[in-house]
Amino acid sequence: MSPILSLQSVTLPRGAVRNLSIDFAPGVHLIVGPNGVGKTSLLNSIAGTLPPVTGSIRLAGELLESGSTQVVMAPNTPPDIPWIRAGLLLDFIVSLYPATRRDVQAARAIIDGLGIAAFLNAPLGTLSAGTARKLLLAAALIAAPPVLLFDEPTNEIDLESIGALLEFLRDAARERVVLITTHHATDLAVLEPGVLDLNS
Q: From CA 191, how far away is CA 58, in angstroms rounded?
């Protein structure tokens, strides 16, 4: 049975999300709206790092809690640890998801598809913004829990990598809930996503 991510009467401490109730089935879902409305805050709340003021967030009927291995998030910016080797950060994130992580062959396909293999021995702080973003995208795709969260994933990455990302997202969404905040919905239209407009 495919997991349903259910938000029930969720109000967030930041942004304009108030009393939001919605169910997300497996597939790709875009979260759109102007800056400051609460798109990233909503992802953080689902990820467990920003508890809602009211309401609940459940996966397959069970409450999601902070640190849940049922959810992974690829944030908009990398963590502030510029000295860490990029490959070590990737391995650490993936290690948190032993039950769902993709096998070695699938992981290599993601790393190669996003063009980051040559950068895995470099310190995180030396990577361009686009390469650092692709590293975080790869980590989430390889971790592959039931819920994948992506904050503006197509920003600052090249067209070839966007094409590869779309295929990886299409594959992931067959059995997983994929939520994506974006100001560039047209980049993702080929995935035929559902859309949650926080401005409406």
A: 25
Contact 148, 177 (CB under 8 A): yes
How open is the CA angle 175-177-183, to the nearest 5 degrees? 135
Report the C-alpha gap between 68 and 99 in whole angstroms: 12
Q: Which helix (H) or strand (E) holds 55?
A: strand 54-59
**Tens of each residue's pLDDT in the chain, 200 residues:** 568 999 999 999 988 899 999 999 999 999 999 999 999 999 999 999 999 999 999 999 999 988 899 999 999 999 999 999 999 999 999 999 999 999 999 999 999 999 999 999 999 999 999 999 999 999 999 999 999 999 999 999 999 999 999 999 999 999 999 999 998 888 899 999 999 999 86
Which domains does the chain show, CATH number per domain? Answer: 5-197 (3.40.50.300)
Task: Record the pTM.
Answer: 0.96
d(CA 175, CA 185): 22
* Pairwise CA distance, residues 30 & 19, whole Å: 19
- Tokens, residue 34: 């102007």
Rounded (10°) angle between helices 104-113 and 159-172 = 150
The alpha helices in 104-158, defined as continuous H runs, are 104-113, 129-143
Task: Compute, in degrees rounded to 10, the torsion defined by CA atoms 179, 181, 183, 184.
Answer: -30
| CA 108 to chain CA mean position, Å | 19
